[in-house]
Structures are given as structure tokens and as C-alpha cells.
Write a structure and sequence with these properties.
Length: 333
Amino acid sequence: MGENKTVVEAFGGARGIALLIGGLVIGTGLYYWQMTASGDAMAEVAAELGLQVYEEGQRRQLRGRIEDIGVAVDTTTERSADTVRWFTDFKIYAPDQPYGRMIGARLRQKAIAGMKGSEWLSTGDAAFDEAVFVEGELATMLAHLDAKARAAVLAATEAGWALEGVTWTARESGRVTSARKISSLLDVGLAAARALRLPGDPETALQERAESDPLPGVRAAAAAAQEDSERAWTGAVADPSEPVTAENALDALAEMNTPRSLEAALILSTAGDDRQQVRTRLISAIYANERTEEVIDALASIGGQLEAVVLTSVVGEHEASAKEAIAAIKARP
């Protein structure tokens, strides 16, 4: 009988129970304070930047466009064993981003695990290459990475941003409760996305890098990329007037943001082809307002959660169609 303990004894007496209850009250209060403060911070940023805040249960979402750049900030959770961890995830969807990866030292070890050193690109800028892991087609990356863009990308990756595909992403642990912190992180990510956009065509940009970049290493790398990738910008289709069909759609898709590549993406999506290159071309069409209604229909059939987020940036005459597409994506298992 002496081994049986009451509830009070099990928790160290009345004092132990009081401390336990007090801890639960404080923990619950802190939880709801963070949830409210996170929502208030997003609302402040939304008012400042002309965005919208949405609530979904205990989660908060910040959505909208700044100029023609899509922005999304979400509170998310991950469960590990009996622990639930909260995060604040940031995404930027900007037109004319180079397709590939750019990841800074903060995330580098995770990104390069299992990769060969030869798969990392060298831009010829030693300081940049030391700090930023770059993966993709060399001519494409160098065309976008002038000196200003390299500085902006370096600042963004140091802040925790990474380019994956054509999307910039960042993650902060916990719910971010400071509007200033949200704005600051968005500012540095937006600066990188804007700096990577090309004022003209890629061929001219690569030529400028080869002729006038301030660093001789970059000039040499760009010149070599020109020689190795003379037709990289126009894909494998010899005749631009040749109609796009199911048979040559993959070749046409390889062209860089041309009307033919969009036609190819639409044809392939109709056949259920949801490969990354197809979805990336459709996303870029959303931001460029190219054949918007057709693109929305295509994304409704093959898009995932990323494409659903992109569609939230559609406003005006196509907004209703975009909302229907989002619902269709979310309804899929």
C-alpha cells in the first residue's frame, strides 16, 4: 500500500501541481500571444506593401504582388515524434529568374550532400563562388549574374534565401512576430530577384559579361560558356516557324521563354505531363500575363501546392478562374 501514490504526491505535492498548472497557463498564453503577434506583424506588412492576409485555423498567410513579383509568407508546422515545430516560410515568385539553384553557406552543406564537385558552377568570381553554391546551365546563370546581381544574391543567401528552380525561398524558425523582420527579409529577397532580371536578351547579357565584367575570371567563364552553348538560348528547333506538336514539344520546351515554349508546355500539360520544366514555363507565363486563361486551366490539371500559391497572385478578370484552379489542386489527393 505504501508504494501507491496519490496524484498530489506524484507531482511533488500541492506546490508541484501549482507549478505545473502555472507552466501550462504561461505556455498557453505564450502560444496564443505568438499566434496573435504573428498575424498582427503580417497585417502591418500587408498594409505597407499592399498585400493581403488570410487566416486558416491557427495559421496565417500573407499573399499578393509587389509590382509583377508574387510574394507569399506562411506559418507552417513540422512534426517530429511528439514535438510540433512552427516555422515562417517565405517565397518570392519573380519573372525572368534563371532556372537552377543558388544557395548560401547557411544552407550549403545540406544542399551539396551527395553531389559531385563538378556539378557546382564556377562563375569566375572567387569570392562569390566561395560563398554561394550555384547549380544550373552555366550560360544561363552567367547571363543573369552581373556584378550587381552577384552582390544582391550574396546578400540574400547570407540572410537565408535560396533560389530553387525559379522560386526564392527562406525559412525562419518559429512564428515571426516582428513586422520589421518580415519586411527586412522580403526586401533583401526582392532585391536579389530584381537584380537577376535581364534588361534585354540573354545572348546580349552573356556577351556583356564576356566583354565588360569587372572581373577577368567572369569574363573568361562567360567567353567559354558562349563557345560551349552557342544555341543554348533557342533550343534544338531549327525553324522557329515550325508548328509545335506533341512530337516536337519537348524540343520546343527547351527554348527560353518563347511563345513556342509556352505552346509546348500547354500541349504537354494536356497530356498530363507535370515535369518541372512544364510547370516552370507555366508559372512564368502567369507572371508575364501570357495566355492566362489557358495557363490557369493547365495548372489546374497538373499543378501542385507551389502552383496553387502562384495562382493566388492572379487578380482582375482571371481571378475567379484562378480560385477555381486552386480549389481543384487542393482537392487532389
